[in-house]
Design brief:
Layout lengths: L1 E2 L2 E2 L19 E5 L4 E5 L6 H26 L2 H6 L2 H28 L1
Antiparallel strand pairs: 1-2, 3-4
Helix pairs in contact: 1-3
Length: about 110
């Protein structure tokens, strides 16, 4: 059933909302654009594989940040690009920097 743009499920439970994650609780953390999904793993996920996944994602994020910094540091780009495009690129950079910070935090918790 769809009501006011929300889907109502008649049976089943998808997840249990939480206000914060426990520092002691071991969990799989998926760092998304503007959110983190925390799934308690309690032996379900290989920590080494998760660490490797986070490290790869961190490197990819660093590469994207470097490319955006290069573009935003290019005076020719800044002179020719419309203001809204420059602002959009700055927004992407800010989002990626936030994501990198969260990835670093999650990696440090795995060690």
């Amino acid at each position: 059933m769809v009501a006011s743009g929300f889907i109502t499920f008649t049976s089943g439970r998808l997840c249990r909302p939480a206000t914060s994650k426990s520092e002691e609780e071991e969990a799989l953390v998926l760092v998304l654009k503007e959110a983190e999904v925390v799934l308690p793993w309690a032996g379900m996920v290989d920590k080494l594989a998760e660490r490797e996944r986070l490290m790869k994602e961190r490197e990819a994020t660093r590469d994207r940040i470097a490319r955006l910094n290069e573009r935003l540091g290019d005076s020719a780009f800044l002179a020719k690009a419309p203001t809204h495009i420059v602002e959009k690129e700055k927004g992407k950079l800010h989002t990626l920097e936030d994501k990198l910070e969260r990835l670093e935090s999650e990696l440090s918790q795995l060690e």
